[in-house]
Specification:
Layout (H helix, E strand, L loop, with lengths): L2 E6 L4 H12 L6 E8 L2 E8 L2 H10 L7 E7 L14 E2 L5 E9 L2 H10 L10 H11 L4 H11 L2 E9 L6 E6 L4 E4 L4 E4 L11 E4 L4 E5 L4 E5 L10 E3 L4 H5 L6 H7 L1 H9 L3 E2 L4 E2 L8 H5 L3 E6 L1 H18 L3 E5 H4 L10 E7 L5 H12 L5 E4 L5 H5 L2 E4 L12 H21 L4 H36 L4 E6 L3 H16 L2 E6 L17 E5 L5 H12 L5 E6 L11 E5 L8 H19 L18
Parallel strand pairs: 17-18, 17-19, 19-20, 20-21, 22-23, 22-24, 24-25, 25-26
Antiparallel strand pairs: 1-4, 1-10, 2-3, 2-4, 5-6, 6-7, 7-8, 8-12, 9-10, 9-11, 11-14, 12-13, 15-16
The protein binds 5-amino-5-deoxy-1-O-phosphono-D-mannitol.
5-amino-5-deoxy-1-O-phosphono-D-mannitol (M6R) binds next to helix 10.
């Protein structure tokens, strides 16, 4: 997730670009850059790190009155957060410049082909391919060259292009990455998100997938990328204030991030799986197949929510690849005698890539000769630098302290990893893998379609339950870790005591706690332990427990045992149910925290990234 801006008007572009980027910095701040056209030549200034560095460079260096320009603030996905990898990117002759947000899935093959044709690449990014492809297709019509380029790329893009041959035109295009246009008086704008434009205009055009727009000071022309046919897009007047707009109209970042999960899951599996053939491609695992076959055990190493993702993955990996898995709390792992050697694969899981305990555990495992493949959301973070390879989750920056979209993206990466191991070890047929991949590719759609109704049910429930002091969360099998995650979410943002428990363990002690003052959230998916779970819920009910069941649509049986039911969509494939069952637990925690007046995004005593022991 990056932020892009563009301006075509009559005023100097640079202040507008810098101001817009500042409002988009929440989308990433690994590097920043701007480009404009001066005396017929492309000019650009880029800088590693936050926008403040770019401002300083511009103040001490190039200044410009140029009335057209593009800018970018980066959340790294391909290539480390360095100046060379910072946008805007140019072609070989510096005749054009590109900013991009998204992922070009086939960048590697395009890049190899372009290199053979003599193009010189200067960065490790997927974006640079766009600049060289446009250069390749450019005769004298920049729009035609952009169209031809976009017909060759696979993946997602929101992009802006300037060409010195037509210095009054800014070209914008989008597919599956956000891009809005702002219509002004004698000036027009492009941005990844509305807040960047609000100080200048409230007249917004939402581009649709497959749209290409040409912006000049005098107007905006929109056509379809593939056919070139003109299209009319309605101008909408936005009434939000700037802060609300940064959260895209959501009350809190946490809520926005909950709603971003379909995209996070999609971005994480995109380009890595082929549903039709059941193939999984994970070049990030730089281990030869024969070394993978020799793995005797896998250690998943993490803290907090990331640890819960690891607990879910244990079931998938053991079931599909037949490799024993230990899921270690990093803070415990680092202080015990470790039976780890070169046959043990260590997988640190971390959203931030900076968690001190996970990093320390990784270092110890590495010293013992274990190959280390991280799962991480932040490109270039310490954990990724110190691991032998990293499978990135592409959730985009997570700002709310309570981890939400990072969790479901981690589940996605781990799901793919489990299938990849099964593929290399040949423990699962291509047909079976294909079924699992098909099911995974359905998850974003299911989430998207049902999030609002699940949210409404959780809001209604929170009215009744926000004053309780204790909660119990129960689940079995894949949903035991999801119960732990639900309890953690509630604890950390609403300061209510909550415990997650394996439902089968209740009779070994915790059932003594059951009374009218402790609601029990029971996860009751239609899986192979459904009957067992229902029996466990009945045991609670018969002790006068208050039961809030999370159950699938069409499951009428559960109404016998639960006083309250939150419905989630039914799925036939068991393995994807944890993705769906996570949603109401996040939303219950969110709504209860809000009802209690807590600071949802920055709960007391917590930090987003725990870089101390
Ligand atoms: O950045 P990491 O994934 O390594 O962070 C691990 C935990 O600190 C984190 O998941 C924490 O538990 C969250 N606050 C949970 O919402």
């Amino acid at each position: 997730m990056c932020g892009i801006v563009g301006y075509a008007g009559t005023k100097p572009a640079l202040p507008v670009l810098l101001d817009g980027l500042a409002r988009l910095e929440y989308r990433g701040y690994d590097s920043a850059g701007v480009a404009w056209i001066e005396n017929g030549e492309i000019q650009r200034t880029r800088c590693q790190g936050k926008l403040a560095g770019l401002r300083e460079l511009l103040e001490n260096g190039k200044r410009s009155e140029c009335p057209i320009g593009i800018g970018h603030t980066r959340w790294a996905t391909h290539g480390a957060p360095t100046e060379e990898n910072a946008h805007p990117h140019t072609d070989c002759t510096k005749s054009l410049v590109v900013v991009h947000n998204g992922i070009i899935e086939n960048y590697y093959s395009l890049r190899e082909q372009l290199k053979k044709e003599g193009h010189k690449f200067r960065s490790e990014t997927d974006t640079e391919v766009l600049a060289h492809l446009i250069e390749k297709h450019l005769k004298d019509d920049i729009i035609d060259a952009v169209r031809k380029t976009l017909s060759e790329v696979e993946g997602a893009f929101a992009m802006g292009v300037l060409w010195k041959g037509e210095p009054d035109k800014l070209i914008a295009a989008r597919k599956e990455s956000p891009l809005v246009l702002g219509a002004g008086e004698g000036e027009n704008f492009m941005a990844s998100d509305i807040p960047a434009l609000l100080p200048y205009t409230r007249e917004i055009i939402f581009l649709e997938d497959g749209d290409l727009a040409v912006l000049t000071a005098d107007g905006i022309d929109i056509t379809r990328i593939d056919t070139g046919e003109p299209v009319n897009r309605e101008i909408k007047t936005i009434s939000w204030d700037a802060t609300a707009a940064e959260k895209a109209g959501f009350r809190h970042f946490m809520l926005k991030e909950i709603y971003e999960q379909p995209q996070g899951v999609l971005n994480t599996f995109r380009g890595r799986v082929i549903p039709e053939t059941g193939e999984v491609d994970l070049p990030e695992i730089e281990l030869a197949d024969e070394d993978i076959r020799k793995i005797s055990r896998i250690v998943l190493l993490a803290c907090g929510t990331s640890w819960h993702a690891g607990l879910v993955a244990k079931y998938w990996i053991e079931e599909w690849a037949g490799i024993p898995v230990e899921v270690d709390l990093a803070s415990e792992f680092r202080y015990r005698r470790l039976l780890v050697d070169e046959t043990v694969l260590t997988v640190p899981i971390s959203q931030s890539g900076e968690t001190a305990d996970t990093l320390a555990g990784l270092r110890i495992a590495k010293e013992k000769g274990s190959p280390v493949i991280a799962i991480c959301n932040v490109v270039g973070s310490t954990i990724t630098r110190e691991s032998h390879g990293t499978i990135y989750t592409h959730a985009g920056p997570e700002i709310g302290v309570a981890s939400t979209k990072a969790f479901t993206s981690q589940l996605t990466a781990l799901y793919i990893l489990a299938l990849f191991l099964a593929q290399v070890k040949d423990t699962m047929s291509a047909e079976e893998r294909s079924e699992k991949i098909h099911a995974l590719t359905e998850v974003p759609r299911l989430m998207e379609k049902h999030l609002e109704e699940i949210h409404q049910a959780c809001t209604d429930l929170s009215d009744e339950f926000y004053q309780y002091r204790d909660f119990l969360y129960l689940g079995r099998h894949l949903h035991f870790p999801i119960a732990l995650e639900g309890a953690l979410k509630l604890k950390e943002i609403s300061y209510i005591h909550a415990e997650g428990y394996a439902a089968g363990e209740m009779k070994h002690g915790p059932i003594a706690l059951i009374d009218r003052n402790m609601p029990v959230v029971a996860l009751v998916p239609k899986d192979h332990v459904y009957d067992k779970m229902v029996s466990n819920v009945e045991e609670v009910r018969s002790r006068r427990g208050i039961i809030i069941a999370v159950a699938e649509e069409g499951d009428e049986n559960v109404a016998r045992v639960a006083q309250h039911i939150i419905r989630v969509p039914a799925t036939t494939e068991q393995s994807i149910k944890p993705f769906i069952f996570t949603l109401p637990l996040q939303l219950i925690a969110y709504e209860i925290s809000f009802a209690r007046g807590c600071d949802v995004d920055q709960p007391r005593n917590l930090a987003k990234s725990v870089t101390v022991e």
